[in-house]
Amino acid sequence: MGLFDRVRDSAGGSIDVRDDLSAGTNVTLHFVLLGALAWGSGQPFLFPSLGPSAYLLATGEKPRAEGAYHVVGGHAIAAICGLAAYVLFADGLVVVDAFEHGERFSADIGRLVISGIVSMLLTTIAMLWSDTNHPAACATTLIVALGLMSTVVEVVIIVVSVVVLVWFHGTIVERVQTICGVEPTDPR
């Protein structure tokens, strides 16, 4: 049994090379634009939680997690909840700096942990109440609450990046999919 056959068997026989390459191409298109914005502006228009959002858009995932309302709404709620928790509990701290020395029971690490917990609590409740339900936004709230992107300007950049991602998907990527015949046919 060859490598491709073993991979297909481990995936339950569900490998569709055309669909998978289409989804990969679509994700790449999303990040070319956002990468160009980041590079050209020197601002963080690329951040980790955009990856899952682009994946959901590119693969045609379940409607509860994708679509403008869910993606933009979820990230906006997460960014605001993360900023509120950060300002209340960890203002001025950055998680990578706090963990640099590995000091056990550090007050700074404790404040960041509380900020992260509170941001997740607020984000979860707010997404459920607003029916935005975008799981990738939970990463956004932690990015903000842990001090990685925790200024008002950076929170605005997060929301603008997500709006650009969704807009670009709806106006450009979907057209490219249709014109080139690369729209995934098997949403997963």
TrEMBL record:
Boundaries of every HPP transmembrane region domain copy: 20-176
Pfam families the UniProt entry points to: TM_HPP
Keyword Transmembrane helix carried by entry: yes
InterPro entries (alphabetical): TM_HPP
Keyword terms of this UniProt record: Membrane, Transmembrane, Transmembrane helix
Transmembrane spans: 27-47, 68-89, 109-130, 142-168
Name this polypeptide is given: HPP family protein
